[in-house]
Give the backbone structure.
Amino acid sequence: QVQLVESGGGLVQAGDSLRLSCAASGRTFSNYAMGWFRQAPGKEREFVVADSWSGRRTYYADSVKGRFTTSRDNAQNTVYLQMNSLKPEDTAVYYCAAKFVTFGSTHYYLRGDEYNYWGQGTQVTVSS
């Protein structure tokens, strides 16, 4: 079992940056592949980025590629999402998710239903 808590959301202007954090507690954090998703009002949940167990394989949605970067600090049990050059269309609730994987796994996961654990979400609002 692992618990995830996101933080770092807020209201910013277009072009600004934010860094979201996802703090994990419970089982050994390093045994998880991680993902970030977002959901805008009235829209379905959308994939943002997926990160393999080692962090060496990462896949970004086209809509955020070149602007968002994910990283993890296993010692701090925290995953980060650095968001630069934010656009109004990035406005959404952002969720981190974790999937328990075997040691050394190089897979990343793009579908929300592949993840076992979710945080409560943090609101990001980008004004034009």
Notes: The chain has no helices and eleven strands. The chain has a mean pLDDT of 93. The first strand starts at residue 2 and ends at 7. The CA atoms of residues 93 and 123 lie 4 Å apart.
